[in-house]
Amino acid sequence: MSRKQYNFLREAGFPLPSVTTVNSRLRQFTVRQGSADATVALLQRHLRGRPARERLCILMFDEMKVNNLMDYDPREDQVVGPHKYLQQVMVRSLVGNWRLPLFFDFDRPMTADLLFDLVRQAESAGALVTGVVSDLGPTNQGLWRALGIAHDRKTSFTNPADPNRQVWVFADTPHLIKLARNHLLDDVLVLPGGGRLDRAFFTEVLSVDAGREFKLLPKLGFKSHVGVKGQARQRVRPAVQLLSNSVATAAERFLGRREEAEFIRVLDRGLDALNGQNLADAKKLRRGMSGDSAEHQKALSDLEKAVKLRFIGKRTLFPFQKGFLVTIASMRGLVNDVTAQLGPDSYVLTGRINQDPLESFFGLVRGKGGACLHPSPSEARCRVRNLTLMLALRLGLNPLSGAGNASSPRTAAATTSATSAITTDMGSNEPDSGDLERAVMDDFSEDSAADEVAGDIQEAESLLATASRTPSARARAATSSPLDPETGVSAEQYGLAHAAGYVAAKCRRIDPTLGAPTAQCLPGEAEPVEALWTRLISQGGLSVPSAEWLARFRAMEAVFCTTHHLEPDHISRAPRVVESLVERLAAETGSMDTRVIRRFVRLRTFIRLGHVNRELRALADELREARKVREFEG
Questions:
Q1: Which run of H or of E encompasses 193?
Q2: 304 with 328: CB under 8 angstroms?
Q3: In which residue ranges is the amino acid composition biased (Low complexity) (predicted)?
Q4: Widest CA span of the chain, in angstroms?
Q5: Rounded to an integer, what distance in angstroms lies between the CA atom of residue 37 and that of residue 102?
Q6: How far is it, in rounded angstroms, from Cα 557 to Cα 545?
């Protein structure tokens, strides 16, 4: 409930306290730095009377940088700082949806003694701690050594509150994915059969789509996925997209790099097995792991073998490789413990064993400061307290009462004074069919936001008329789309058929004859050979077009290209750019539903916009580099 809604109810006559009264009451709730007493009390009230399966949980901890300055905390009447970082610990259910901040402090590394104390306190509240998750920062690697955790030794420690149970140690899987991507781009991995994985390999894969509008990999770009630098390397999604089955299939079909493709597939399957989020996921490996799941065990065994390969010039494994090995061993141990405790039919959603909730929590702590991403110590303390309060209220807990419930009118009012709602996990599941329009728009909007100099874009726009005469533009235009040697179909034609399948999926209720999901066979006709790419990358949810619809799609594509051909950059600026073409195509096709035509025109317009903007950015980069050379030469 928003503040405006709350005030509306008060003005309508509902007997609710004022916002000032609610705020004054909530100020009585205090979370102390370096103490877990208040949050343990909340956790105890939440877990009271719940069955064992709902009390299974993991601890996650990480550090966040704060502004290394002294400042005054008016709430505590105390000078705070200077501090360099915030240490935050959260507890998360392994089965349910609850999570709660447990502990925070400044400039305090996680040690074995502190971790044992937090496990004991969580267990005293009724929680059953089964694992701990952290990234591979230097202090956390030191903690692993102190606990005796290693990839070639044990991967768990005895629960300090119950000697009969183990606490399994995990590295944060999204963090491992980013590190794996970084090393594959920065170093060289030679496979047993002579295959070679490095930056040049991924550049070659992306070159299959170079200069094309219909792409096999519409979500991937060189700058965002291969040439990624600095803070952009912290994003998980580009790393996952680069190490995906689609990239492996493109490398195998168009480059003949079968060994490299199989290695990437092993990574993709292993990461799916470690990232189970939903029982209804299109990918079987992301539906949860049980003790007798042979498919999961094989995926983890293959990943285990793959990450043991050493990079060129390295005598030992990288930390991310050791992290994978520890996580795989711990996942097996945790699944065995859970099935032994809850029965053979139980399972573990492996995607819950990561730091996504903690990263979302840090995002909210930073976000309250607007453009200032590093809050002062007192600001961080206040925001942690407010977010803890908000999460408690979301769990139905009254932080001011030992047995209260936030569903009462007075306590529910506290929800309106809380800050914005806790965001969902980073690792969200995308439907297998995807949204091609959104992918295309995201591709150029995110990259354009990363352009360093806006003036370069303006300069590039002014030179569009001559852009086709630049060497790079001529090279892109002259390069033909590579062919699949087995079918003779070009990559661009595969991409066009994939787009036609996307429209068929979106318009299935309007006209089911346009196509069908790959899990089903097309009624009464053979599948077009151009749909092979969609079938190769699909897990059953993507749609392949019918032969008739693919022919119509090509005919409408010809009309689209003719309509925009005379424009300098092949895209009209006239008003009603979509609707005018819809009307023209409707008049020419006759019987086709206008909603299907409109879906095609919108998609095709977005694809053209993405293509033009990529050319603009490429030209801007060339101009920027040329200017740097001129400045360097004097």
A1: none
A2: yes
A3: 406-424, 466-482
A4: 78
A5: 9
A6: 15
Return the structure tokens found at 579.
């609707």
CA dist 543 and 209 (Å) reads 21
pTM for the predicted model, two decimal places: 0.84
Where do the H-state alpha helices sit in 193-318?
Answer: 199-206, 236-242, 245-255, 258-273, 294-306
Q: Which residues pair with 490 in a beta bridge?
A: 483
Residue 291 parent element (H or E): none
User: 147: which 2 tokens?
Assistant: 């606990």
User: Two tokens at 243?
Assistant: 């190490």
Residue pair 449/613 in contact (Cβ under 8 Å)? The answer is: no
Mean pLDDT by 10 residues, the chain (634 residues): 83 87 82 92 94 95 94 86 94 93 96 97 96 95 96 95 96 96 96 95 94 91 91 93 96 96 97 90 88 91 96 94 97 94 90 94 86 86 91 86 45 38 34 45 38 38 40 49 92 95 94 89 71 90 92 94 87 92 90 93 93 88 87 79
Question: Which one-letter DSSP state was computed for residue 232?
Answer: G
Write b or e for each residue in 171-199: b if 16 or more Cβ atoms lie within 10 A of its Cβ, otherwise e: bbbbbbbbbbbebbbeebbeeeeebebbe
State CA 56 to chain mean position distance: 25
Q: Are the CB atoms for 324 and 175 separated by under 8 Å?
A: no
Residue 336, token pair as written in the block = 């065995």
Q: Which of 319, 177, 312 is nearest to 244 (CA)?
A: 177
d(CA 278, CA 598): 33
> What sections of 343-431 are H helices per DSSP?
356-367, 377-394, 409-412, 414-417
Q: Using alpha carbons, list the distances in angstroms from residue 173 to 63, 133, 282.
A: 17, 9, 20
Query: What is the secondary structure of 315-359 as a DSSP string?
Result: SS--HHHHHHHHHHHHHHHHHHHHHHHH-TT--B-GGGSSSHHHH
